[in-house]
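Researcher: Quick one. three chains, 1190 residues in total.
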Amino acid sequence: MSTLVLWLVLVLSIGVFAAQVATRVRLILAAPNTFSFDHIGLRARRFLLDVIFQRQTIAERPAAGLAHALVFWGFVAFAGYTTTEFLDGLGIVDLTQTAWFAGYRLVLTGFAVAVLAGIGYLLVRRAFVRPVGLGTTVSAESIAIGLFIATLMVTFLLTYRLADESTAGRINWWVHAIVILAFLALIPASKHFHLLLSPITIFLKSPTLGHVRNLDFEKEEVGLETVKDLGSKMALDAFTCVECGRCQVNCPAWGAGKELNPKTIILQTQAALLAGDREARLAQAYTEKALWQCTTCGACENQCPVGIEHLPILIGARRGLVSNGDAPEYLGAVYNHLERRGNIWGLGYDQRQKFVESAALETFDPAQHDVLVWLGCAGAFEADYQKSMRSLFEILRARGIRFGVLAKERCTGDPAKRTGNEYMYQELATGNIADLKAAGPKKILTSCPHCVKTIGDDYRQFGYDVEIVHSAVFVDELLRGRPAKAATGDAPGGSVTFHDPCYLGRYAGKVDEPRRLLTQFGGDIAEPERNRENPFCCGAGGGLLFADKEEEPGTRISDVRFKQLRETGAGTVVTACPFCSIMLKGAHASAGAAGGDVQFVDLMTYVKDRL
Amino acid sequence: MKIAVCIKQVPSRDWHPRLDDAGTWIRESDATYEMNEPDAYALEESLRLKEKHGGEVVVCSAGPARVAQVLREALARGADRAIHVDGEALAGADAFVVAAALSAAMADERFDLILTGLQSDDQGLGQIGVVLAERLGLPHATIIMDVAVESSSIRVKRELEGGWFQWVTMPLPALITIQSGINQLRYATLKGIMGAKKKEIRKAAPPDGVSPRQTIVGLYVPEKTKKTQLIDGSPAQAAVELVRRLREEARVI
Amino acid sequence: MILVIAEQRSGTLNRATWETVAAAQQLAAASGPAAEAIAIVALGSQIDGVAAELAAAQVSEVVTIDDPALALYTPDGYTAALQQVIAELAPTLVLLPHTYQTRDFAPKLAARLERALITDATAVKPGSSGPVFVRSMFQGKLTADVAAHGPEPHVVTFQIGAFRGDQAGRGPAPAPIRAIHVTIDAAAIRQTPEAPFQEAKQSVDLSQAERIVSVGRGIKGQEHLPLARQLADALGAELGASRPICDAGWLPMDRQVGSSGQTVAPKVYVALGISGAIQHLVGMKGSNVVVAINKDPDAPIFEIADYGIVGDLFEVVPAMIAALKT
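Model:
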């Protein structure tokens, strides 16, 4: 009788489970295939670290992460136990009386205690501590699942106290079995689907941050307009989301009180897929306002423990808008500048030529020069940043590095790419690649982290592979062991704080080089909140440098960051990106007297003044 | 409404001038080209008028084969079809010749409204629109900052000097030349670029026997004048000197 | 004979006409031992005052066309009238100042006559067969010497400021004034012009301003803004500002110049205490003449300024205001 009941409940549970899984798998498979298996070694390594060893989960939130790891490892450990018990209960085979099972059970006791401790911590955190990333209301479903897990452990431990054949023992067994089957039925429609999907999602996540596939114009791809344009990895991402809110709390737009919440974007994707209307417009699912608030700083994607890639969705949806002419007005002006002048400012080419002449720069010749210096839109046109370029040139010349520049440069296309103007990006990129190939540098040096990402990573999709280094990295290696002297002129000394540019710290992972340079040349670094590989964005990325006014609600992202830097008490803010520099100086100027007496120095100028 | 917009292809702004061997024209093979900026505003205005009043926008250009590039660009931005008066000599021709070429190709179309840019960024003659109007027998108005189409007439806002404006009404068909900055230019969208491939470009031959009324007998790089003049002296002296130079040198006050 | 077409509006002579008279006198002097005669034609309605003013010039005569159909300028009316005057006077050259009004009708007139029109000339040089006219091309990257062809008259317009109006020769006695009657078919004038107007002042449109005085952080405090305003008044300029000033609420947002504010292209842009951050520069790079006053000699604004004073704006500006009033 009880065997039959168990069979019935099992079939029911598996039926519910399978039907829901099938719906979701069908949606994933119906989407255009965007799964990629390149760099298999890197993917395997990450799978081991982030799935098996729960690195990412523990790294950002050690206590909660460890608690989660205990539950995860316990789950894996219990797989054999559950299977054996069900085989017995279903009358297939009884292995519960074997000697190995007794030993296994004994080992599991330790796991059970660990899981109980872990889930107890997580339950208290969710129900009473209520971190903001988990949402404004306490999820009843999450509490139920937590209690389920606790119940499973308690019922397991009770088997030591209750005789198998006693009534209490039978009830205990049945509670355990029913909870498992109920859990099974709940999994696919809840965030606990990540139990099954996250190992796959993590494996399929691109090895590089912010990897956004080029559109194929031959196939008439225009970006994400409707639900049917979402790629298979995006659909997988949507069903994998565990709603932990790491993306949310690390997002600078959300942090500045704006509408954008990357977690919401993923959940809206999930809802749009499940709603079943393949022609539904994604801009409506997400709201255009939120889409244009993303700085593409990459914090969401980088912090996600289950392998979700937010940027292809955010940028893809922007592409869908831009392809139809629905970009915000300020970007229309930038696009016209890029289209007609090849730089973001819309300034004349003669302005760059003026700088090239006044800085006595030679045109790159591989026979004569060690390295090609890429000026970028800031280096070529922005008077303030040209000062730091001159500092770099001085350092290079002092160390005998021979360098040249291209006769003509276009913008790398970074702002076009990140704002979804793929056509313009590809125009700029292919033009630059042709010029770079003709010039033939082995190594490119630039002071712009966005250029590093675009030339060094995005251009690979066109088959152009070149070594490009940021000046912080190049100069760190160049000056290793060189003595510092007292600062020249009125350059400030003492306490400095370093603002990691997102595209240098987070994207390129270069966090030690600038710090080594600062320390070597007498800087006493006061670290700000949010630093190194997880800095808080200055607010310039993703085309927002050009936004007239950042959209309400909320404050300017740059104001938030400036305040964080100000709170270090350092009198000098060092940056290593022209756009961070523009944004932070702007925030300082806007703060007026409240901004205090802060000096902004580019890393290259800081070093040059003390060399 | 059947709208025509005349555009010109001109050397791009970042082009570094090189002269031909005769020293009377540029070395065209060295130049990169783009749509004349004032014409881009005229195109934008014509697209806005079409969006508001319906009809079609036909983009017209006179020049060598390379001109097809800006015609495609205009089609990508939303023009419906194009007319290309194809002639190698049209690139450096004067207004008399270019307007004759355009009018010959456009006359039979019987456009309700023709728009051009105020002037071109190459020779900068500022004549073609008005001459074209005269050849086609149309009334015209120039330096237009606002356009209101009424049933069989058009009311346009002319820019006068010194911050003055004037509304002028003319019967349709008519021709207007558009002031830069009248609108915010749209950018070419991916969808537009894809759609442009399927749109028609009609080729026309320039008429014979039109001789130019002016020729360039010499072309040269002007002496550089622009450099920052830093004015020294005491604040009072410097201020007086600055005002003097603004009055007498720059003549802006 | 050289014919100068004067420009007037509502009985007020456009002073650029004097520059064209100066150009005509230079051309006449260079035309050979017997200098060519110069006539000035003024057209409109009730223009006796204008004609009398022009008669002071050293020219052979002033011709007037006084017709109610010409009271308000229209290209159709002007073309019809001038076509008849040119037929009657048979000049070799027709000269005009390159004003907005000239740009509106001169190409039509030349096309009607099927004659050459050279626009926006800055100078005249002798050529192998008649004068050649110098004009800027390709956005000022190149300068061209241009020769006119075909039957006379050739029509030439001169850039404002290319000749000095105050150096136009005045005659010992007023030149004779002669009225010519033309027939203008009022029904053939297709343009119906309305009265000229200036934009209402309440909303600031800096993009249309001819002169702008802009303040930056160097102004230090809101209490110093009247100083900048006084300079603006003395120059007949609008007041603009960089982002920090508007962020601080010292001036409303519609005064902000730059990528996040308005894009401006005045004849003269005076930057007071503005360092010249790139977002500001892209908003005012189209200015014809840029004046920078800043304490910091390294301020980027000096890179693009035409005139610069390195100094304290609180000392320089009052001196400028005083100098402007003399």
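The interface with chain A takes residues 12-14, 16, 34, 37, 184-194 of chain B (CB under 8 Å).
Researcher: Thanks, that's what I needed.
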